[in-house]
Amino acid sequence: MAKAFNKILIANRGEIALRIICTCREMGIKTVAVYSSADAESLHVRFADEAVCIGPESSAESYLKIPNIISAAEITNADAIHPGYGFLSENAHFSRICEEQSIKFIGPSAEMIARMGDKAEAKATMRAAEVPLVPGSDGILKDLREAKRVAEEIGYPVMMKATAGGGGKGMRAIGSKGELEKAWDSARTEAKAAFGNADVYMEKRIVDPRHIEIQVVGDQYGKLCHLSERDCSIQRRHQKLLEETPSPFMTEDLRRRMGEAAIRGAKHIGYEGAGTVEFLVDKDRNFYFMEMNTRIQVEHPITEQVIDYDLIREQILVASGTPISGKNYEPKLHSIECRINAEDPYSGFRPSPGTITDFHAPGGHGIRIDTHAYSGYNIPPFYDSMIAKLIATAQTREESISKMKRALDEFVIGGVRTTIPFHRQLLREDAFATGDYTTEYLEDFVPDPRFKYEEDEG
Questions:
Q1: What is the DSSP string of 71-140?
Q2: Which residue, among 277, 127, 136, has the nearest Cα to 206 in the 3D structure?
Q3: Catalytic-residue membership of 255
Q4: What confidence tens digit (pLDDT) does each residue in 413-454 have?
Q5: How far apart are CA 204 and CA 159, in angstroms?
Q6: What distance in Å separates the CA atoms of residue 125 and residue 261, rounded to the nearest whole number?
Q7: Are 376 and 423 in contact (CB under 8 A)?
Q8: What is the DSSP letter of 420?
Q9: Rounded to the nearest 5 degrees, what angle is found at the Cα of 288, between the Cα atoms of 282 and 291?
Q10: How far apart are CA 315 and CA 106, in angstroms?
Q11: Is pLDDT of 368 > 70?
């Protein structure tokens, strides 16, 4: 097979940039790292074939600065850009500029990103594809009066969401009529500040839901497949903390129906590349479309582990014009991912930037770690707090949990607070052991100081 690309610029940082570099090396493709002044000592800068500083510590002046990234690609003669996740990965304008500059954007077209990035339009698209939707407004709410009318029609509780949103920004749960006006004002204000767009829409709130997503891949020739599901229900304030596949809530029938719906929706827009169709699933296993992420996901490693499939490699091959097999996959193993964040779970998950003084990574059969951290690395306070992903894979869920418990007990990161103690406690909770958890599980979760490391005391 001919080489997919000669040189790929990675428009990202940290562990995902390093992850992409690993696959490019295996494929014989040269890499270009871009970095802010705060990331000069990051491993992705050291391991890439070339590195270009694109600005100061601020994301707005570096990782989000499109002219700087395009310039870096041009001066290094990169013929493709991989955006990773976050930053510009779902920016339709960036995808369009890459195309105009004859640089291949490793991801879907600008049109596809725009259609799925606007939640109101994504909802309309999925309705046309006959994918189940949560009852709610037809699109953007034009004023408070319409919000009140829709809420009365679908019945409380409801969820108000920013149409350009993500990560829980501009999202409000509303339990009664008396809460609506305050939620309307605060959601729109937060959405405007976070995304530059105050538009919101409304959905019926699904009580005690699971958050289950389907990984899909499509090529340039209209062929699509799904790579089964990931359960992302363990989350705090709409931020995922742990994912697993297969979902302990899944049945063969539910997987088949969700997989078919995800492919139906992706086919409706002629989707190209790796993407994820996310669903809310109620206690009766009715599922409803929530959103589509048109990029690689943070939690992609667990899918790779259970079906032996390099998703980054597939992204690169699809972008180069290689057709996919079209085969749907089912998990043959069980895999769990714990996101290790530089946050203090005993102080409301407050960020904990600083210098790592000690770093010991666990190993052994079935353990994978994706990280850019090392002893002596300074965690900057300007970006996402995730510093590692710890993945445990085994024949059964019980074995995966056992492996993860052991790995967490061996994982040492000194000098900063991390979420390792949180995960150590979570995996020993009865609700997690039995798979009986929902997206609301952590609302009443109380960190147990018994799971602190000795060096954390005092």
A1: HHHHHTT-SEEE--SSTTTT-HHHHHHHHHTT-EESS--HHHHHHHHSHHHHHHHHHHTT--B-SB-SS-
A2: 136
A3: no
A4: 999 999 999 999 999 999 999 999 999 999 888 888 888 765
A5: 6
A6: 13
A7: no
A8: H
A9: 125
A10: 7
A11: yes
Q: Identify any residues that bridge with 214 across adjacent strands, giving them in sequence order.
A: 229, 277
pLDDT in tens, 215-259: 999 999 999 999 999 999 999 988 999 999 999 999 999 999 999
pLDDT at position 73 over 60: yes
Tokens of 313: 């490699």
**CA 391 vs CA 12, 317, 344: distances in Å:** 22, 25, 21
Q: Does domain 7-106 fall into CATH 1.10.10.10?
A: no
Q: Quote the Cα angle for 179-241-61, to 5°.
A: 85
Rounded mean pLDDT, 324-348: 95
Amino acid at 247: S
Q: How far apart are CA 286 and CA 134, in angstroms?
A: 10
Of 230, 295, 339, 397, which residue is the catalytic one? 295
Select 135-204's CATH number: 3.10.20.30, 3.30.1490.20, 3.40.190.10, 1.10.10.1320.
Answer: 3.30.1490.20
Counting other chains too, the contacts that 176-185 makes at CB distance below 8 Å and 24 or more residues apart are: 177/148, 177/151, 177/152, 180/144, 180/147, 180/148, 180/151, 181/144, 184/144, 184/147, 184/160
Residues 136-154 as b or e (16 or more Cβ within 10 Å = b): bbeebbeeeeebbebbeeb
Sheet of 7-10, strands arranged across: 50-55, 30-36, 7-10, 80-82, 104-105
Q: Region 185-203: what's the mean pLDDT?
A: 92
Phi, then psi, of 61 in degrees rounded to 5: -105, 5
Instruction: Give the percent of the chain with pLDDT over 90.
Output: 89
Amino acid (1-letter code) at residue 167: G
- Which tokens sit at 262? 């995800």
The CATH number of the domain covering residues in 210-456: 3.30.470.20
Residue 47: exposed, middle, or buried by beta-carbon count in 10 A (0-12, 13-18, 19+)?
middle
- Please compute, for residue 244, the number of CA atoms within 13 A of its CA located in the half-sphere on the CB side: 27
Residue 93 confidence (pLDDT) above 90: yes
List b or e across 185-205, with b for residues whose CB sees 16 or more CB atoms inside 10 angstroms: eebbebbeebbebbbbbbbbb
298 neighbors 387 (Cβ within 8 angstroms): no
Is the full-model pTM beyond 0.70? yes
Mean pLDDT for the chain?
94
Rounded distance between C-alpha atoms, residue 13 and residue 45, angstroms: 9
What local confidence, expressed as pLDDT, does residue 3 receive?
A: 73
Residue 280 has pLDDT above 90, yes or no: yes
